[in-house]
Amino acid sequence: MKDINEIRKDFPILEKKIYNKPLVYLDNAATTQKPISVVQKIEDGYYNANANIHRGVHFLSQEATEAHEQARQKVADFLNANSSKEIIFTRGTTESINLVVSSYGEAFLKKGDEVIVSQMEHHANIVPWQMLRDKIGIVIKVIPLNSNQELDIEEYKKLITDKTKFVSISHVSNVLGTINPVKEIISIAHLNNIPVLVDGAQSVPHIKIDIKELDADFFVFSGHKIYGPTGIGVLYGKEKLLDNMPPYQGGGEMIANVSFEKTTYNELPYKFEAGTPDYIGSTALSTALEYIEKIGIDNIAHYEHELLSYATSELLKISGVKIFGNAKEKSSVLSFLIDGIHHYDMGLLLDKQGIAVRTGHHCAQPLMTYLGVEGTVRASFSFYNTKDEIDIFIKGVKRVVQMFQ
Ligand code: PMP
Known about the structure:
Strand content: 15-25%
Strand order of the largest sheet: 4-10-9-8-7-5-6
Bound molecules: 4'-deoxy-4'-aminopyridoxal-5'-phosphate
């Protein structure tokens, strides 16, 4: 991997002082910091390349349109999709899932049909399905976890019935770090002709995605978790499926022709992009993907795994610590609690030392209920973090433990 000090220079915020102490940013699963190239792309977009896209005959509009479409192609290449028509820009993972649940769900599911999710889902992959349940009466079934907090694949197989019409599953848990065997989950579903959505919010920043190899029907992620801007995300869908789905929102760009009697819809991908899209965000996301590719996703995975192993072994030396998420395949998320210390207190007292971690239920309350806790403390690592920062974090945790003794 490129020299870590050089990498850190790309992220000026890492130089920030918090309460006069160096910032140790370990909240990367919530959102990542942005490299200079991404911020410059946004600035350059607004200063030099801003015009509403698609509808303009003038130079700037055509240039902006081309940049947006090139960004779409970049995302398609990044995922190894067949075509840029399969890439829909959304506001993020949450909107992408809502789009599929509303459009596909309302068109192709009916009362009594079963949708399989898992015990470790983020609320974004639970609540939209519950809203559909309330509207049309689908049944939600839940894959349980084993004692290492991995999905129980045998139980998953047993959940599939003639009525199962959709599987919607996270690739990596934002709480446990568990990397789910999505390829296997998809192939089992496909044996039964069931489409699968993969929530890639926590996997794309850490794992190389080859959508052709995975054979996911839908794959969704957020720009801000992969060093890109907020407000932009992606829905990948197989062309055949997207083609047959009705539009999600109505308005500009998603139409072919409008009259008061009848409106016809635009072709893919525009059918799903009503209104002015975030064309500055899409181009900056493309820059973020280029940045990641330059460092190399395999290098990132390897380095982050070293950080995770080191942090895990150091944390386990502290008495009373309990780590949640002991999967064999795990990404760089470390959730824990320490006996007698509320997660919120730990978060606050680490913050006072300049250390940013996340505390609470992490938008995964059903998982918290299963784990029998109200919340956890979560440290999540990026390739710009260092072993020295882990040492500061561990020292910080020890200091908090001493305060409570
Ligand atoms: N799914 C998972 C697994 C996540 O970690 C998150 C973000 N915490 C989301 C979905 C929602 O992402 P966003 O808020 O960017 O839409």
